[in-house]
Structure formats: C-alpha cells, structure tokens
Design brief:
With 178 residues, this protein is of the alpha/beta class. The chain is built from two helices and six strands, in the order βββββαβα. 11% of the residues lie in helices and 14% in strands. It has a four-stranded mixed sheet with strand order 4-3-1-5, with no helix packed on it. A two-stranded parallel sheet has the order 2-6.
C-alpha cells in the first residue's frame, strides 16, 4: 500500500505514464540523471500521497509477504484485508519497487519479484515501517517470539498456519531425494 500512496488505481502512484514531464523515479528509462547508473540520494523525487519518498525505482525493497506459491502473478490466496501473507520459516519473500537498472514496468506498484531470504544484492534494500494503529512490540507482554515482535512493529501480520501446498510438495520431494 505504501508504494501505491493510498491505494491509487493508477499504473504509478503519480499517474499512468512514467514520464509525465516531472522526473519521479530512478529506473532504466525514467529520465533521471542516475538512470541505469547508480542509486539516487534520498528525497530526490516528489513523495507519494503518504509523504513517502523514493518508493518507485532506485532499489528493490523487501516486503513482509511470503511468496505464496505462484511467483509473480498469483494473488489467488493472498489476504485481501491488508494482512501480510506469512507462514512459519518462510524461505522466500517478495521484492517490490524495482531498481535503477530495471525498466518502468518493474517500478509499478503491482510488480513484485520473488527472492530467497538468503539472497544478497546491491540492488536490494529495505524500509523500516511501523503501523501506529497497532501497539508497539516493546509495549506488549512478552510474546516469546522475536520475529513476531519485529513483525508487530511493521505491517499487520496475519500468519497462515501452513505454507502453500506447492511448497509442501517441494519440501517432500527434496526430503525423498535425500
């Protein structure tokens, strides 16, 4: 939701065209002076409706959602109430926002890239976010789970008890092969 800027139905949070006369992002062919070369300094482009800067382009951003089995385009089982898709020991999360070397189609709010939680890249970063409607993890009684405390300080998390069926099958095949 942060990249959309209040749920805009537009292709980008500023409209439907990446080039509208104002340089708004750092990507391959976005017309910024950093395109396809390097990251841009924070605050180089106008903020979205939430006042968040540099949400499109520059560097991919890790998001809380676990990959739910369908790669880039499967939203079939994704929660529709604003919850993050989570399950225990999630091996892959999504990246969003594109980066300075990716084309405009990758900086759209709808674009996402599945990535292993162990992946490292100079093209990937993260943003620390907090939902002020939820109690701070430090204010809660001891939950006994550091991951739950970290999650509660960010996007609303609604853990799923089981990983998606595709991942269960993948794990069973890997175990059988050993």
């Amino acid at each position: 939701m942060g990249i959309r800027g209040q749920g805009s139905p537009k292709t980008f949070y500023w409209g439907n065209e990446v080039k509208d006369g104002t340089v708004r992002a750092n990507c391959h062919d976005c017309d910024s002076r950093w395109d396809n070369q390097t990251t841009s300094p924070v605050g180089s482009f106008p903020p979205n409706a939430f006042g968040l800067y540099d949400m499109a382009g520059n560097a991919w951003q890790w998001v809380l959602d676990c990959v739910n089995g369908g790669g880039d385009g499967d939203y079939k089982r994704t929660p529709t109430d604003g919850c993050a898709w989570l399950y225990p020991l999630c091996p892959r999360h999504y990246l969003r926002g594109g980066n300075y070397q990716r084309p405009p189609r990758n900086i759209r709010p709808a674009a996402r890239l599945p990535a292993s939680t162990t992946e490292q890249s100079i093209y990937v970063g993260f943003r620390v976010a907090r939902d002020f409607d939820e109690p701070r993890a430090a204010d809660q009684k001891d939950s006994g789970n550091a991951a739950s405390e970290a999650i509660s300080a960010g996007r609303k998390a609604c853990p799923i008890d089981q990983p998606p069926p595709e991942l269960i099958v993948e794990k069973a095949k890997a175990s059988a092969a050993k």
